[in-house]
Every structure is written in structure tokens, then in C-alpha cells.
Backbone:
């Protein structure tokens, strides 16, 4: 089981939850504020690709 204990942005002073990481990776390291320009929203991308859910847009 994966026990993720409240992941936080890699910025030491930031308490946001990260959702951005390197493209192709599954680990989010930075929040939207501290992400680097080439980072992508891995949380949403992973959910979209990993599980087939009904699209609700
Ligand atoms: Zn941050």
C-alpha cells in the first residue's frame, strides 16, 4: 500500500499540496506557484491516463 503522508511542495516555505512534476513522471513535487516552466500537472495527467473514468467536462 502506498502511504503518502501529506505531500507538500518542495519549496521549504510552502505548505501547498504539490501537483506538478516532471513530464512523464508520477511524482508531484511542486505546487502550481513554485512549479518550473517545463513541469506538468502530473496528478491530473496520471488520473486521466491511468484510469479510465467517465469524462465529465
Ligand atoms: Zn509551492
Residues:
Amino acid at each position: 500500500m502506498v502511504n503518502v503522508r501529506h505531500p507538500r511542495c518542495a519549496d521549504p516555505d510552502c505548505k501547498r499540496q504539490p501537483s506538478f512534476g516532471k513530464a512523464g513522471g508520477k511524482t508531484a513535487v511542486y505546487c502550481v506557484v513554485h512549479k518550473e516552466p517545463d513541469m506538468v500537472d502530473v496528478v491530473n495527467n496520471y488520473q486521466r491516463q491511468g484510469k479510465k473514468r467517465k469524462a465529465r467536462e
Notes: The longest strand covers residues 20-22. Residues 9, 11, 14, 16, 30-31, 33-34 surround zinc ion (CB under 6 Å). The chain has a mean pLDDT of 81.
